[in-house]
Specification:
114 residues, alpha/beta, Rossmann fold, six-stranded mixed β-sheet, disordered C terminus
Length: 114
Amino acid sequence: MTARNILVVEDNSNIATLLSLHLGDMGYGAWVSGDGISGLSLARSAHPDLIILDLTLPTLDGMAVCRQLRQDANYTPILMRTSKSSEATVFWVWIRGGRLPGQAVQHSRTAGAG
């Protein structure tokens, strides 16, 4: 069985390292990119099985990377992650397929909400 490869596009090196180590422990191959442009390039050249994509990236933000990848013929699932500290809100967006932004499922949780 061939190992599944996951691309982590994350500018925080501590988070990227942690994700990479855990993915490796679970038997996945993990590639790491620290900015949007190199992440987009690696996604297009390496064809990972999944992309974990930070929303706030240098050079090209995560939404722009996602939009450009959705214009390509090659489909790759994207798990977009971010933690926004403003107003104690955490957003997780799972981009599940297709090419339309309306197909994203968004979940939000505000601290103290029950």
